[in-house]
Specification:
Layout: H1 2-7, H2 13-22, H3 29-32, E1 50-57, E2 67-74, E3 80-86, H4 91-105, E4 110-113, H5 134-141, E5 145-148, H6 156-175, H7 181-199, H8 219-222, E6 225-230, E7 236-239, E8 242-246, E9 259-264, E10 270-274, E11 277-278, E12 281-286
Parallel strand pairs: 1-4, 4-5
Antiparallel strand pairs: 1-2, 2-3, 6-9, 7-8, 8-12, 9-10, 10-11
């Protein structure tokens, strides 16, 4: 395709396949299918199931270090709905990408992921906490289901998309001389539109089942790292090796030995609330760390 678009050179598929066989880079379908996985029917409606995954790859080849591409693909249509390069998979990166997705399309019925620690509590015998990750807690607040696949084959839609992206996107980045995450992210929307034009499918049911955000659903607050802490008798709260001193008032004086919630924003801002009520506080002390 690129030889045709950029150089007006036309080569048949059979010729290209023979060259790839001679070069030892063609794998027959028989060799690719060593194990049989039964196909699963697509969901019927756009927005019914969104498969998400992080693909760790040398996206910029030898021009930059390996990084991760976050991929959001609709199960019913195979449309790429969100793409973003990040250094590695993290909760805050998924917060940012999901926030962008929701503002653009609305709330899907469910996200479908693997068992990465961002999506699922993987520690055996864990008894403390809510049993949900921070990402799972955010989706729960938005009334969006999270489904974790048992195998990579179960989320084949996004896995196949990753293989296609590792072929096509890598070459597009090379042709444009893009060699860093920032420039790559600026190009991704252009690539996504072209990809969807080539490969997306019509859904069996034309209904869009995305839901609008409710007035009370503040994405800026929902997509934060949230943890509960107990207020001491001295009206102090400790979080992330920092001691915060609550300002004494009619509300805070009644919170001794009660739980408050810490809101940790992506930019490092900290907020402390009791039942959604913001509490005034100051940084009292940073807990020093003793070097062994």
């Amino acid at each position: 395709e690129k030889l045709q678009e950029l150089h007006n050179l036309y080569i048949s598929v059979a010729t290209l396949r023979s060259w790839m066989i001679e070069g030892g880079i063609w794998v027959s379908r028989k060799e690719r299918k060593k194990r049989v996985y039964q196909p699963r029917n697509r969901r019927e409606c756009f927005g019914e199931l969104i498969q998400i995954d992080g693909s760790d790859h040398y996206w910029f080849e030898d021009r930059a270090s390996k990084c991760t591409l976050l991929v959001y693909i609709d199960d019913a249509t195979s449309q790429l709905l969100e793409l973003r390069f990040v250094a590695s998979e993290s909760t805050f990166d998924y917060f940012y990408s999901t926030n962008r997705y929701l503002q653009k399309y609305g709330k899907p019925v469910a996200f479908y992921s693997d068992k990465h620690s961002v999506f699922r509590v993987n520690q055996k015998g864990a008894v403390n906490g809510s049993g949900m990750t921070q990402f799972g807690r955010a989706l729960h607040e938005l009334n969006i289901d999270i489904i974790c696949a048992n195998t990579s084959q179960a989320k084949g839609r996004v896995e196949r998309a990753n293989r296609t992206l590792q072929d096509r996107l890598v070459k597009e980045l090379r042709l444009r001389g893009i060699d860093n995450i920032q420039d790559g992210n600026e190009y991704l929307d252009v690539f996504r539109v072209d990809f969807n034009h080539r490969f997306s499918k019509e859904p069996r049911n034309p209904k869009d089942v995305h839901r609008s955000l409710a007035e009370h659903e503040c994405l800026e607050d929902i997509f934060t790292w949230q943890e509960d802490r107990t207020v001491t008798n001295n009206l102090t709260v400790q979080y992330d090796r920092v001691v915060y001193l609550l300002e004494p008032n009619d509300v805070t004086l009644g919170l001794r030995r009660k739980k408050v919630r810490i809101y940790d924003y992506p930019d490092g801002t900290i907020d402390i609330r009791y039942k959604a009520l913001p509490l005034p506080f100051t940084v009292f002390d940073k807990v020093s760390q003793v070097k062994q």
